[in-house]
Design a protein that fits this description.
Oligomer: single chain
Radius of gyration: 60 Å
Number of domains: 2
Strand order of the largest sheet: 11-12-21-20-17-18
Strand content: 15-25%
Low-confidence stretches: 81-87, 536-541, 645-650
Structural class: alpha+beta
Mean pLDDT: 81
Distance between the termini: 80 Å
Shape: elongated
Helix content: 40-55%
Largest sheet: 6 strands, antiparallel
CATH class of the largest domain: Alpha Beta
Number of helices: 16
Length: 650
């Protein structure tokens, strides 16, 4: 019967393929975006840090160069001699100062003030770079205007080692005011008097520095002082307006920081966010900043996300179309197989499908056709096996009748036995033949187990039944040797030499206690002898004994095999134990064999009991040893206990 379905395999494949592709695309996009953002963040941080430190180093180098120039000029003033005010230079000294001034391209104007008595300062010398002013049409008087409109208090200059500020003019590019002060020794009447202070206020050109800060197109780089005033900025309008960034929290945080350089992210209350790198100069507490907005910094990653989404949607649409075409073709073939399986489910095994595709579905159709043919064949085989199984069951029932009653008492002899096949039919067999005052006990083990071995035991059983009746009617008094010879011929002709059987025949005289035996390659029985103590006339001294004699060849090997016969005497209360190799060779869960030594140890305390108690005790111990491990061979155990037998010596 076929089942109705609401969601066909075609759509399941379609949903599965689409979901897998969508999952793969999303995973790839998330991973790629994360990696790209991390890489981009590292790149932005590194560029910000490198740019700010590079500009800081170049700026510091330039200012140091200007300071060295001012230091040289101050030294010339300091070496001035024969003056009481340190403001009189010789022509040679003035020429040297002018030469030093001209040697520094950054110097546009330099005013040198000397402290007078009373703490007032008076300009001693002014130097101007007229070549710089000429292109702009500006006269030297502009510097006097600067000094009047934007004066610098001398106490401020004296308080700082270096003083810097930006000067923005309408007619020329912004200038940078650099001011320093030095103490100068004054010689009066060839004696050194109280030193006076020298003030050097220089106006430096900023056009080159501003170009340096304008090199980066992505980053805004600028120079601020310790209070946030902008000293240099690529946008000149910032300098003309005298702008300050002191109000920004991130700037205040950087100015307070003791770390000389670094990169920080910030987000303002107005929604602006960015990344700013900084590097502090060792001169005048200046700080170089390189700033970029977060939106600009991650513009490339944002574009990547947008393009990835568009690309992913296109791939998804294309894959959806391809999936429809693919699943339609594949599910049509699977539909044929589905219909065919429905017919098989209804009991029609003569169905076949034809799918001419060179893929798994095509191979599946070939396998399906082969399967239906195999099912038809297996149904026939199953019927045949059921018939055979019934026959094996019948053979099992027949073989169970081969064995005598497990307990037997006869003229002072107690016999008890146990038999368990490894499969439904076994290859072990035991039996007994009554012969007047004598009793023959037989035990054998055919090669392997199962039906073939069971057939050999059938031949042995049939032979023994014949010998039993032969003994009853003819009173021929069979011996152990003649019994083995008859059995050998029967098994040889039954097995054609392919299946053999070990056998042991013991003939016991219940009056005399004589035991005559012949062995065809079987395990020797174990004898428990109860010897008489001559003083107390009791059975106190006990021991296990083994029979003498070499075993002959197994039965069925040759029709003319010769068998040797041996004899011994059994006493009252002696016990003898016959067994097949399955008892000692079967193993437990740890693959340990039960073994002959364990059998001997367990036999000794049981040997004084009855034959049935001996068998039950030994098999209880053996089965407990095997546990749940399946037995690989048949197990047969036969015990004989001597009661009123005659006495004699072995």
């Amino acid at each position: 019967m076929t089942q109705n379905f609401r969601f066909s395999l075609k759509y399941k494949f379609l949903v599965l393929l689409t979901a897998m592709l969508l999952t793969a695309l999303l995973a790839y996009m998330l991973m790629a975006i994360k990696l790209f953002r991390n890489d981009k963040s590292a790149y932005v941080y590194e560029v910000s840090d490198t740019l700010s430190e590079t500009l800081a180093a170049e700026t510091e180098t330039g200012i140091h160069s200007n300071l060295r120039t001012l230091e040289l000029i101050a030294n010339v003033f300091a070496r001035a001699s024969n003056t009481d005010s340190a403001n009189k230079l010789s022509l040679e000294q003035k020429s040297l100062v002018q030469s030093i001034f001209n040697g520094d391209d950054d110097l546009v104007e330099l005013s040198i003030y000397v402290e007078r008595e009373g703490g007032q300062a008076e300009r001693s010398l002014q130097l101007i770079n007229a070549n710089y002013l000429k292109p702009y049409g500006v006269k030297a008087e502009i510097f006097d205007k600067i000094s009047k409109e934007k004066p610098i208090a001398f106490d401020v200059i004296a308080a700082k080692s270096v003083y810097l500020r930006s000067v923005a003019l309408d007619n020329i590019p912004p200038l940078l005011t650099l001011a320093v002060s030095r103490e100068v020794s004054v010689i009066k009447n060839k004696q050194q008097v109280k030193p006076k202070r020298l003030y050097l206020i220089a106006q430096l050109r900023q056009d080159r520095r501003l170009k340096m800060f304008s090199k980066s197109k992505e980053y805004t780089t600028y120079l601020i002082d310790s209070v946030g005033n902008i000293i240099a900025h690529p946008n000149v309008s910032f300098l003309l307006r005298g702008e300050s960034v002191a109000g920004k929290p991130i700037i205040n945080e950087i100015l307070r920081s003791k770390i000389p350089a670094g990169v920080r992210e910030y987000a303002e209350k107005d929604g602006q966010a960015g990344i700013i790198g900084y590097a502090k100069l060792q001169i005048a507490d200046l700080v170089v900043l390189s700033e970029i907005s977060r939106k600009r910094a991650f513009y490339a990653s944002q574009r990547l996300i947008e393009k990835s989404i568009i690309f992913g949607v296109l791939i998804l649409i294309l894959s959806f179309i391809i999936s429809i075409l693919f699943t339609s073709k594949m599910t049509s073939a699977l539909g044929k197989l589905f219909a065919a399986t429905g017919r098989v489910g209804s009991g029609d095994f003569n169905v076949s499908v034809q799918i001419n595709t060179r893929d798994e579905v095509g191979s599946l159709s070939v396998a399906f056709n082969a399967m239906t043919k195999k099912i038809v064949h297996l149904l026939a085989e199953t019927a045949e096996k059921a018939k055979l199984e019934k026959e094996v069951e019948t053979a099992q029932l027949v073989q169970e009748n081969f064995f005598p009653v497990m307990d037997l008492s006869r003229e002072g002899l107690q016999i008890a036995a146990f038999y368990q096949p490894a499969s439904r039919c076994g290859g072990d067999w035991w039996g007994h033949i009554p012969m007047g005052d004598k009793t023959a006990i037989l035990i054998g083990d055919a090669t392997g187990h199962g039906v073939p071995a069971a057939l050999i035991t059938a031949a042995a059983h049939a032979c023994c039944v014949t010998l039993k009746h032969f003994e009853e009617f003819n009173q021929s008094h069979l011996t152990a040797k003649t019994i083995l010879e008859h059995l050998n011929r029967a098994i040889f002709h039954s097995g054609r030499g392919k299946i053999k059987m070990t056998f042991f025949v013991a003939v016991i005289d219940s009056k005399t206690g004589e035991l005559e035996y012949a062995n065809a390659a079987h395990e020797m029985p174990i004898i428990y002898r109860s010897k008489i103590d001559s003083e107390s006339d009791s059975y106190a001294v006990t021991q296990l004994d083994t029979l003498e004699g070499e075993p002959s060849s197994c039965l069925g090997q040759s029709e003319s095999t010769a068998f040797a016969t041996y004899k011994t005497i059994l006493n009252q209360n002696d016990a003898i134990l016959w067994y097949t190799d399955g008892l000692v060779e079967c193993v437990n869960e740890q693959e340990e064999e039960y073994g002959e030594r364990r059998l001997n140890r367990r036999f000794i305390p049981l040997a004084t009991k009855s034959a049935r108690e001996i068998v039950d005790g030994l098999m209880t111990d053996a089965i407990g040893f095997y546990g749940t491990k399946l037995r690989a061979d048949d197990i047969t155990l036969v015990a004989l206990k001597i009661g009123n037998a005659g006495h004699g010596n072995s």
